[in-house]
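The aim of this short unit is practical: by the end, you should be able to scan a pair of folded records and say something sensible about each. We start with the first protein, listed as its amino acid sequence and then its structure tokens.
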Amino acid sequence: MSNSLLQDRIVLVAEDNAISQMLVKHILLKLGASSVDIAANGVEASQKFTQNKYDVVLADLQMPVMDGFEFASEIRTKLSSNVPIIGMTASTLHEEDKKCYEYGMNECIQKPITIENLSSAIQKVFSATPGTSSSPLILVSDGICVDLSMVYEISGNDESYISLMVQTFLDTMPNSLASMRQCLSEKNWEGLYQSAHRAKSTLSVIKVSEMFNAVVAIEGYAKSASHLDLLPSLVAEVERFFLVANELLGKKLKELSNDMISK
């Protein structure tokens, strides 16, 4: 196994188990990592991430305080980073991999971690074209992840139905965003709550985790009329995320149209 795979690379590992920490660090160093930082939970990992520059992040999915899913979401949203993230799970892999992609991770591997499965995952994330995902149902750009897995599952891979769902999302979401912006300017917290709630329902089908997390926060703050100072930045964040999602889904519509024409 090549010991140059991670040559001159700095790695952050978020893992709460001491034995697993030692094992993963040992493997990473064998693969040539110049430095490996260890964090015992997502909060500690987030603090390290803001203080240092990392080339790849490994995150255990089940950790106390803040788990790997929340940490990955924070990297993609609050920290706006495209750093490769590899999830690690002790559960059956197929139970977790879709969720990993939804939260913005690039790969997910099953424990026990071995030099073979870890090096394979690292090779995949480093060889992937920037702005892409290992799953064809996951669209990624600028740290934004659009997950179409549920749409494909519901449709039974019916491309005409998938196109209709995507187009409906693109047609209706701007209205929800405009409503949120108007309610915010009018300090209409009940209206903002209702608009965010409608957007959340849409985002639970065509999943844009970064938008969904921000909308959930808006919904909660508007309903309780609390943390109102955070609402302008959250609404702006949702609008910014939608611009990226809109571009990704527009390209997806063209692909679907071309596929249907060629059949």
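Turning to the second protein, read its sequence before its tokens, just as you did above.
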Amino acid sequence: MKNSTLFFEDDICTNIIKDKTIGIIGYGNQGRAQALNLQDSGVDVIVGIRDGSKSTDLLKKDEICFNSIEQVVSKADILCMLVPDAKAVEVYNNNVKPHLSKGKTLLFSHGYNIHYSLINCPEDIDVIMVAPSGGGVMVRSEYKKGSGVPSLLAVNQNYSGHALDRAKAYAKLIGSARICCFLSTFKEETETDLYGEQVLLTGGIPMIIEKSLKVLLDDGYSPAVAWFVCYYEVKMIVDLFHKNGFEYLYKAISDTARYGGLKSGKYLIDDDYENKLKVVLDNIKTGKFKKELDKNVDTLDYRSTIDTDSQDEILKLMKVLFKKDNS
């Protein structure tokens, strides 16, 4: 399949970076996964950590070379900033930027700090993005299975003239090209990632499930049955449309489920809901959300609205069922 914005394994040659030293800054979930995948792909990898890092023992166990961030920046040809967004600016300004030299490549797996101009890079380096669409645990586990997690690729600075080729090669080496790589931009990746998190992944879906559960529990239904219909069956529905789309979903379910779902769905997810989604997106695009995050990052905590007894019963049920699923 030939497409100027889609890349697969056969489209990508890794020679452009195969003999380069790749430095991973940070050894959290994403840093560890990418470092191990790169090492298994035969690349020279070294991890940069700060003094006193808790990752030292894990790095020794994983048999990954490591050194101070400053030493890694000086030695590596490609530098991957894989520390959390909130810490990245400080690490970049204090430990990375003073040791960057002409012709190096700086890689990010999220566009946030570049898009919002929190990190400003010298003009004589490449600045690229390889953003796997999954957490580090999945990036690693899928690679070990012989598969991968798709990635978004982007170029912010193309000093060398080969920045995109380097991003493609890196994506192949961590396993993403086994599935597919998509050409994007730092702006698009950042804004759509934040939007997806807020309206679906960590905002919409978990809260829809909890509120649906609460209504049944408040009306006297058992926690076990309420959990089954509001939580456990969600995965079944997602699996139905995952491979073949929403049309397939509505053809595969019963007449009762289709009629009830479409009627109630249109009532719940109305124009007002769509307008709220547009407000969320607008706040991300204008930078309003970023400003709020800077001031309030530690002010919100999750507080369940479900009573403690029901929570305990549901957790016991989950442990039993998921233990059987994994046995």
